[in-house]
């Protein structure tokens, strides 16, 4: 036994010694024109503060390679004659994976005789040059680094100003008091449905994201007055970009953590002699709790076990003359059963309120994108995509005394979506460029659900729609004019047409940015925006008991529309310190409301786990959101960073009765404080410590009518007080500890996320207990430690 241990130890030491012979990593990337995407031959890239200076130049394809970069955190600067330089900061260089960078350089609008050095705010500048207000880019590393984000981009952006936290169980993105339904998701330019496990139509969140952070590259997040390229959304845009695989070597990743057990492989695809190499990435994840349960480990009596898995495939094929093709495949399914136990902790939150739920969902996205340069100044991007989303819901009422179930609600949704899009971009000169685009989204919707109505003593249909085809057509034009390198004007027009009710919309957009001094910038944005309703809402049926017939009265619902006004001020107080202030006002109109349930408004859609079924909706509702946001940020330099965001706002709506009420998302304020420090231990190891504190107003709610609930022996609400009440303020502290090690040919990382370290009891909701006839308080997540281990080689 001792000999075996000695041999294993010797093998381990020898392996590490062999792997440790390598002391540096190769960094690859491309340099392109920010407007056209044309590769820049001869651009210079240097490793900032390297001694001696390390650097290189790009080849015919705009590609570069820097070898022997020492392990650690480095910044890289790209420059080219006639263009402004660009710095990508704080890239962690490790042994297990080669960093792949992409520089987008902007051509200077004016040619100066003397060299003038100006301070630039590059860290938050969005990738889309048309977005000059309420927009910022984020890196993949931020999704990993921010405490509490759990590698989820949606949870990460909840730390930004204007995004409201408050739901530990989901990652819904609530922007400036708007419903999460108002967020547009795009992946590599392709519009996609809710990309989360356990997601449903009409919502944009879920407990676990399908967007694997290991597959992402820098992306944009826009919270208001977005450019004309984006449409059919009321609150914001999450523009996600997927990275390409390594074209020179095979790399592998193994990981286990909150998001599941994961395995990934990437590498080159040979394309023949004298041709560019392609690349691929394949990644698979499986629910951690499901695997532990399948192995026979007892997670806890009555515990709801989330079951999910997803598969991602990215294939990138560049060609010499036919442009670049990119194939994307995202697939995920999920299922959970809640409240199916009459004893144990898992039954507390669900069946005491009288209901048990089974819910399953599926999302499949298959997309092919194509990019081709017609000339050095003209680029065309096109894409086609097939998407399938489905969900199945079973909601049973529970007799707690007899411990039996009764099928109360069942629903099944299947929707196929076929999209096609094309974008034409042309740069006339350094001052002017134009973007034109068009797309179509064809939906094939099947939705069938029914509910047992006690007053009728029978089950009635809520929706019964099979393979209903509808199409949304879109078009837009963007023009950017740079009066100088300091003053930029973006204007545009977006239009859409929905053939279900033959409604159309023409929407102007404008963005203006003026750099007053080397350190101060003011921005202004305006946009008219509109959005169709969830397809399922159009197909709700009204039941007439006297004639035993149904009618569809929502088919003529119009777009919900809004005006966005935003004014911003940026101050770069130092090379790594930034202060940003924005004020906004949003006017919403043509909002669907109900003649019968007069307090109802579609603006509150997405505040719960299901979509309310109401018929005879009319577009007579209004709403408004106003607020001020402050961001104070110290970018990651010298091993540490800090971020403080404060949002003060008011979100109101009018139902059919024209009474102003708070929306379900009107928490009135939100504050985030994040900070982190990174220590280098020796030459190859790094220790990180990140902390986050969140404080926001409590969730709005409608109180339970206790007397009516006791009389009916089921939960009843006092709708005269809709959203009048607020739970106590939401408060949470998270801590993340990470440790990275480099061993020549592979690297490994440990992470410990301590969620809600103070154990603060944040209220989730109140429910009526049909057994005790009391109102119970259901709390959100308590203190939970979560582990992460990642291996790259």
Kindly describe this structure.
The chain is built from six helices and 45 strands. By secondary structure, it is mainly beta. The strands form nine sheets. The protein has a 22-stranded antiparallel barrel. It is globular.
Task: Tag the structure with descriptive keywords.
globular, 793 residues, 22-stranded antiparallel barrel, mainly beta, 6 helices, 5-stranded mixed beta sheet
The largest β sheet comes out as: 22 strands, antiparallel, barrel
Q: How many whole angstroms does the radius of gyration measure?
A: 27 Å
Structural class: mainly beta
Count of individual helical segments = 6
| N-end to C-end Cα span | 31 Å
Count of DSSP strands: 45
Shape: globular
User: What integer is the average pLDDT?
Assistant: 86
State the low-pLDDT regions, or none.
Answer: 1-21, 112-121, 344-352
């Amino acid at each position: 036994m001792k000999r075996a241990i000695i041999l294993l130890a010797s093998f381990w030491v020898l392996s590490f010694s062999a792997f440790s012979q390598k002391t540096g990593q190769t960094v690859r990337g491309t340099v392109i024109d920010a407007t056209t995407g044309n590769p820049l031959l001869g651009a210079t890239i240097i490793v900032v503060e390297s001694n001696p200076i390390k650097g290189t130049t790009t080849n015919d394809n705009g590609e570069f390679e820097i070898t022997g970069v020492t392990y650690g955190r480095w910044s890289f600067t790209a420059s080219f004659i006639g263009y402004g330089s660009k710095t990508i900061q704080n890239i962690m260089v490790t042994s297990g994976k080669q960093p792949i960078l992409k520089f987008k350089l902007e051509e200077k609008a004016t040619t100066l005789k003397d060299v003038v050095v100006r301070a630039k705010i590059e860290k938050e500048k969005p990738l889309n040059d048309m977005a000059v207000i309420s927009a910022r880019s984020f890196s993949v590393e931020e999704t990993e680094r921010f405490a509490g984000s759990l590698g989820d981009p949606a949870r990460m952006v909840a730390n930004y100003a204007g995004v409201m936290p408050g739901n530990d169980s989901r990652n819904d993105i609530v922007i400036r008091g708007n419903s999460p339904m108002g967020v547009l998701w795009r992946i590599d330019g392709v519009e996609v449905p809710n990309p989360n496990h356990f997601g449903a139509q009409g919502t944009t969140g879920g407990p676990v994201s399908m967007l694997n952070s290991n597959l992402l590259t820098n992306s944009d997040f826009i919270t208001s007055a977005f450019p004309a390229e984006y449409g059919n959304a009321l609150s914001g845009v999450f523009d996600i970009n997927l990275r390409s695989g390594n074209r020179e070597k095979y790399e592998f990743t193994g990981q286990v953590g909150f998001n599941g057990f994961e395995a990934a492989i990437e590498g080159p695809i040979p394309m023949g002699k004298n041709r560019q190499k392609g690349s691929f990435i394949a990644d698979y994840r499986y629910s951690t709790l499901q695997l532990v349960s399948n192995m026979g480990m007892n997670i806890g009596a009555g515990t709801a076990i989330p079951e999910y898995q997803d598969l991602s495939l990215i294939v990138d094929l560049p060609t010499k003359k036919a442009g670049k093709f990119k194939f994307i495949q995202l697939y995920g399914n999920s299922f959970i059963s809640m409240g199916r136990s009459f004893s144990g902790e898992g039954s507390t939150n669900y069946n005491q309120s009288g209901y048990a739920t089974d819910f399953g969902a599926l999302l499949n996205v298959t997309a092919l994108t194509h990019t081709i340069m017609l000339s050095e100044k003209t680029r065309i991007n096109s894409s086609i995509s097939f998407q399938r989303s489905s969900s199945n819901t079973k909601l049973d009422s529970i007799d707690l005394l007899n411990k039996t179930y009764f099928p109360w609600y069942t629903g099944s949704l299947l929707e196929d979506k076929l999209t096609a899009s094309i974008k034409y971009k042309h740069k006339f000169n350094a001052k002017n460029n134009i973007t034109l685009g068009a797309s179509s989204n064809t939906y094939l919707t099947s939705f069938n659900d029914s509910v047992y109505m006690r007053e009728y003593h029978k089950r009635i249909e809520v929706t019964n729609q099979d393979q209903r085809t509808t199409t949304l057509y879109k078009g837009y034009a963007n023009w950017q004019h740079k009066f100088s390198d300091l003053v930029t004007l973006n204007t545009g027009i977006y239009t859409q047409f929905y053939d279900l009710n033959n409604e159309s919309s023409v929407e102007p957009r404008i963005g203006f940015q003026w750099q007053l001094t080397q350190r101060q910038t003011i921005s202004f944005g305006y946009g008219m925006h509109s959005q169709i309703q969830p397809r399922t809402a159009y197909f709700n049926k009204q039941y007439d008991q006297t004639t035993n017939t149904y009618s569809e009265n929502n088919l003529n619902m119009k777009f919900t529309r809004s005006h966005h006004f935003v004014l911003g001020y940026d101050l770069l107080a130092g090379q790594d310190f930034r202060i940003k202030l924005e004020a906004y006002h949003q006017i919403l109109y043509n909002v669907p409301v109900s003649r019968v349930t007069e307090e109802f408004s579609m603006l509150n859609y997405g505040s719960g786990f299901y979509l309310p079924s109401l018929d005879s909706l009319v577009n007579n509702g209004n709403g408004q959101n106003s607020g001020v946001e402050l961001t104070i940020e110290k970018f990651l330099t010298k091993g540490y960073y800090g971020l403080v965001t404060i949002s003060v706002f008011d979100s109101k709506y009018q139902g059919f009765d024209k009474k102003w009420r708070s929306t379900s998302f009107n928490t009135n304020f939100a504050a985030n404080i994040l900070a982190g420090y990174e220590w280098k231990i020796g030459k190859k190891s790094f220790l990180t410590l990140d902390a986050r504190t969140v404080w926001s107003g409590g969730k709005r709610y409608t109180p339970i009518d206790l007397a009516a609930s006791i009389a009916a022996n089921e939960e009843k609400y006092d709708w005269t007080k809709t959203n009048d009440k607020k739970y106590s303020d939401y408060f949470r502290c998270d801590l993340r500890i990470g440790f990275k090690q480099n061993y020549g040919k592979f690297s490994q990382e440990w992470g410990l996320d301590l969620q809600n370290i103070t154990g603060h009891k944040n209220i989730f909701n109140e429910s009526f207990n049909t057994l005790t006839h009391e109102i119970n308080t259901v709390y959100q997540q308590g203190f939970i430690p979560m582990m992460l281990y990642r291996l790259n080689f």
